[in-house]
From TrEMBL:
This is Uncharacterized protein. InterPro entries: Mannan_Polymerase_Subunit, Nucleotide-diphossugar_trans. The keyword Zinc does not apply. One of its GO terms (cellular component) is mannan polymerase complex. It is a single-pass type II membrane protein. One of its GO terms (molecular function) is alpha-1,6-mannosyltransferase activity. Belongs to the ANP1/MMN9/VAN1 family. One of its GO terms (biological process) is cell wall mannoprotein biosynthetic process. The keyword Metal-binding does not apply.
Length: 375
């Protein structure tokens, strides 16, 4: 027959241990010397001394040693990527966004627009990669000055971290003039080089706490301040807005807009047939009369600036990289920017094909606009 709990004999040792734990608990709670709660800003500052959280911050080794010279090893850190979210309420859930920019020239308009983004800056990390050329050196100097000014300014305006990389390979085209960059004969080498730069930047800066990656070109000088909130609200694995350019229209003698990025498209039978007849190392290019693909270009799907629906979505087979938002899990699953012909596509268009092969769908917003610098 079972003995009731009240009649069981309680060990004196158990009573003593329970009393000691209770006393210790009350001393801990009411100790006037107990440290204050850790603030979000303190956690952000402390992360810089941590080797992995996020890895884009410098790990400052603790130089304190015992008298015998022993120094404690770095901590072992556990991450659960199953707990990492990338949702339509990104800011509310505290989801971290990594903005990555390959840069050969520094435009102050780009940086000013970046500072105006309304998404909490403490959740934004920045990453840049620049070539080791004369122009790249000048851009690096200007970028470092802008970073130093922002990161020493008001705390709310500071970004969580900033990483600046220099390319370890020579760019195939030294001139960054727009007419030179877009020559058809320069495209294969240029875009393969851009792919290598993007991949170097991505693989170096993507950390275990990153939920989203925004690829933002260095010559995008105007976006809505709510760019990040707007794009993440669609909760798509890959999504890209329409990139336009402001210019002075000589015919109307007024400022006007025109499409700029033609790399966001829906495929056509003509383009697929062209690809089938190509040699393995040849690539399809968009926007050139010598290679008519008859794809449906998102640049021409825009209904107009007046009365259009910026939330209108269309499925895409190819995407441009001017302002490309990607869920970090897509990159973690292996989608990168092929620096080789992948189904006869490279760089961002090759990335879209790779993402689709991994089971993701790419989307575009024809009536949501970002603006490219007009040279």
């Amino acid at each position: 027959m079972a003995v009731s709990r009240s009649l069981r004999r309680t060990s004196p040792i158990s009573i003593i241990l329970a009393a000691m734990l209770a006393i210790g608990f009350f001393l801990f709670i009411f100790d006037p010397m107990a440290p204050p709660p850790v603030t979000a800003q303190q956690r952000q500052d402390d992360a810089a001394t941590h080797p992995l959280s996020p890895p884009t911050k410098p790990f400052l080794k603790n130089q304190a040693q015992r008298a015998d010279g022993y120094q404690a090893p770095p901590p072992v850190v556990h991450y659960s990527l199953n707990d990492l979210t990338s949702s339509e309420a990104a800011a509310e859930h505290g989801e971290r966004i990594l903005i990555l920019t390959p840069m050969s020239r520094f435009y102050q308009g780009y940086w000013d627009n970046l500072e105006k983004l309304s998404y909490p800056h403490e959740l934004i990390s920045l990453g840049f990669i620049l070539p080791k050329t004369k122009e790249g050196n000048a851009a690096t100097t200007a970028l470092q000055e802008a970073v130093a000014k922002t990161q020493s300014g008001p705390i709310d305006a500071r970004f969580a971290s900033v990483s600046i990389l220099r390319q370890d390979f020579e760019p195939p085209i030294l001139s960054q003039e727009e007419h030179e960059r877009h020559k058809m004969e320069n495209q294969k080498l240029r875009r393969e080089s851009m792919s290598r730069a993007r991949n170097s930047l991505l693989f170096t800066t993507l950390g275990p706490s990153t939920s989203w990656v925004l690829w933002l070109d260095a010559d995008i000088i105007e976006t809505p301040p709510t760019l990040l909130e707007d794009l993440t609200s669609h909760d798509k694995a890959v999504i890209v807005p329409n990139c336009f350019q402001r210019y002075f229209n000589e015919d109307t003698q007024m400022m006007d807009v025109r499409p700029y990025d033609f790399n966001s498209w829906q495929d056509s039978d003509v383009a697929l047939n062209l690809a089938e007849k190509m040699e393995p190392d040849q690539i399809l290019l968009e926007g050139y009369a010598d290679m008519a693909t008859y794809r449906s270009l998102m640049a021409y799907m825009a209904e107009g600036l007046e009365g259009s629906d910026p939330h209108n979505e269309v499925q895409l087979d190819g995407v441009g990289g001017t302002a490309l938002l990607v869920k970090a899990e897509v990159h973690r699953d292996g989608a990168m920017f092929p620096a080789f012909p992948f189904y006869h596509l490279v760089e961002t268009e090759g990335f879209a094909k790779m993402a689709r092969r991994l089971g993701y769908t790419c989307w575009g917003l024809p009536d949501y606009y970002v603006y490219h610098y007009n040279e």
